[in-house]
Amino acid sequence: MATEEGVEPESPLDEVMADIRQELVRRVAAADRDENRDVYDALEDE
């Protein structure tokens, strides 16, 4: 694990990859919510 002292600035590619990962996580979470809407609704009503 890198410490802050040894961390190099992010390259443009690293920034793009981080954006892609973040969007992928959002899409997977949204798909999961859609597929399991009844479970999420039941939990909200508890």
Which keywords apply here?
mainly alpha, 46 residues, 2 helices, 72% helix, single chain
Summarize the structure.
The protein is mainly alpha-helical and 46 residues long.
Can you walk me through this structure?
This protein is mostly helical and 46 residues long. It has one domain. It is 72% helix and 0% strand. It has helices at residues 12-35, 37-45. The longest helix has 24 residues, at 12-35. The termini are far apart. The mean pLDDT is 86.
* Topology pattern, helix = H, strand = E: HH
Distance between the termini: 41 Å
Taken from the alpha-carbon principal axes, the silhouette is elongated
What is the number of domains?
1
Strand content: under 5%
* Major β-sheet profile: none
Round the Cα radius of gyration to an integer and report it: 18 Å
Q: What is the residue-mean pLDDT, rounded to a whole number?
A: 86
Number of DSSP strand runs: 0
Model regions low in confidence, pLDDT < 50 over at least 5 residues: none
Q: Given the structure, what is the number of helices?
A: 2
**Helix content, binned percent:** over 70%
The helix-and-strand class reads: mainly alpha
Question: How are the secondary structure elements laid out?
Answer:
Blueprint: H1 12-35, H2 37-45
